[in-house]
Amino acid sequence: MVIVLRKRDPFLATSKAGLFAKDQSSPFPKFPKKLAGKTLFITGASRGIGKAIALKAARDGANIVIAAKTAKPHPKLPGTIYTAAKEVEDAGGKCLPCAVDIQDEEAVYNAVGEAVKKFGGIDIVVNNASVINLTGTLETTMKKYDLMSRVNVRGTSKACLPYLKDATNPHILNITVPLNMRHEWFKDNIAIATVAVEVLYDKDTLKYCRKDSIIADAAYVMLTRDSKTRTGEYLYDEEVLMEEGITDFNQYLVSPESPIAGVAEVFEALKSCCNKEVVQMVNAVFEFQLTGKEPGVWYLDLKDNEGSVGSGKYPGGEVGCTMIMDSEDFVRMFQGHLNPLQLSMLDRLEIKGHKVLALHIPRLMGKLAGRTIFITGASRGIGKAIALKAARDGANIVIAAKTTEPHPKLPGTIYTAAKEVEEAGGKCLPCVVDIRDERTVDEAVKEAVKKFGGIDILV
Fold first, then answer.
1. How many Å apart are CA 2 and CA 155, to the nearest integer?
2. Taking a C-beta distance cutoff of 8 angstroms, is the pair 267, 178 a contact?
3. Where in the cell is it found (predicted)?
């Protein structure tokens, strides 16, 4: 089984790595010891999520191979492969600490060989190791970016594959960052590698973060399932746990008394939806009368100027659509778990006024009208499909690809794709770009900024 397990933004009621949370215990209900005697090869397990997964499996009596670089204490980061190994053995597992740089193929194969010699094989691989570079994205060199890619992406799967084939229930689990990254994460390239919570977030924000145990619990669920029935999936930690009946995710918070994703936080996020393009599209005011845990009245003005949000009755006059609902349903609606139609069918939403306006709600977070999207490889296939989808919203599309002349076997060029984009309702700039050539990439970016005034999204 090959599974990618993703961590979501905590605003969306899922996890972020609680790297420095001292309490690594899990509130998840105890399972039978399904991993007893299994051998897990875990990269980056000297601390954080990797160690949390190791300890979770160790409590079953599993054999753990810790493959990480930290053999000596780090001045700022807790733990080494040896301190983590001691914790694993104290938790009931057996452990082999291996000093491994994932970039070093020989070191990886040596560690795999040691693991097989000591434990007789490998049943599970967890690709968790990652590297970060704390400079701004614009200041990050290709060399440093390539370093992050070599460590974060390549993993150890190939070296372990011969032994996984002999295992009775083999698994490969890849730990990765969320797809829906918040805009403030983009200030550092860490947003596309991993999250160093202590560096990027202040103490007030940290209390809304999740402990590593949420990933460890989700990983445990996936690693104990039948690999023949669950494979090739991209899953979020929360959805995995929800399948097991877990619904209270506040128990995973670093500070459980600080629940995440309240009504006020949703309206704070909705501010980013307020712009002239959305106002022109919707041209209405919404009022939300909320009951339950967070009762109150709020409004979303998508009619005047560039739009606005606020608590209390709308001060500007007529409201086009009033929605009466439970505050928890409201939060889940804007998280994408529910939509107005579903809530209405369940008799959990009452709509007054122009009911058709409620159909705009699911689209508010993702409307692309007027946004500029830089898409590589968009002359055909998936890239072009994304471009056409966004073009129907009225987006500006930059097609960055090599194909300027018709290919004898492959359909389309950057110019035929550009024509389709414009016919779909978007504006388009076709650019001849070889992604390996930094000069052509820079030139295309400059052309895009000159034509459209900036870039909002990179695909």
1. 12
2. no
3. Mitochondrion; Peroxisome
CA 182/CA 127 separation, integer angstroms: 24
Q: What percent of the chain has pLDDT over 90?
A: 29
For tokens 């606005």, what's the residue? 308
- Strands of the sheet containing 94-99, edge to edge, are 94-99, 63-68, 39-43, 124-127, 171-176, 2-6, 233-236
Total number of residues shown for the chain: 459
Amino acid at position 223, single letter: L
Dist CA 33 CA 345 (whole Å): 42
Q: Which two tokens stand for residue 429?
A: 């700039």
Query: Positive or negative, the Cα torsion across 349, 353, 356, 358?
Result: negative
Q: How far apart are alpha carbons 128 and 442 in whole angstroms? A: 32
What the block records as the tokens of 344 is 């209405």
Whose tokens are 């309240």? That residue is: 262
Can you tell me the distance from the alpha carbon of 223 to that of 210, in angstroms, rounded to the nearest whole number?
A: 21
Rounded to whole angstroms, the Cα distance separating 429 from 204 reads 43
Reduce the secondary structure of 59-112 to three states and give it as a string.
CCCCEEEEEECCCCCCCCCCCCHHHHHHHHHHCCCEEEEEECCCCCHHHHHHHH
| Strand bridging mode 233-236 / 2-6 | parallel
Distance CA 369, CA 392 (A): 8
- Looking at 13-27, 50-64, 151-165, 400-414, which range is the least confident one? 13-27
pLDDT in tens, 189-232: 433 333 333 333 344 444 556 677 888 888 888 888 888 887 88
**Mean pLDDT across the chain:** 78
Output 110 or 130, whichever has higher pLDDT: 110
| Cα–Cα–Cα angle for 284, 285, 289, rounded to 5 degrees | 145
Task: Indicate left, alpha or beta for 31 from its phi (over 0: left) and psi (-120 to 50: alpha).
Answer: beta
Split at pLDDT 50, 70, 90, the class of 177 is low
Q: Are 327 and 292 contacting, i.e. CB atoms less than 8 angstroms apart?
A: yes
Of the candidates 318, 321, 319, which has an alpha carbon nearest to the alpha carbon of residue 355? 321
The owner of tokens 């009946």 is 245
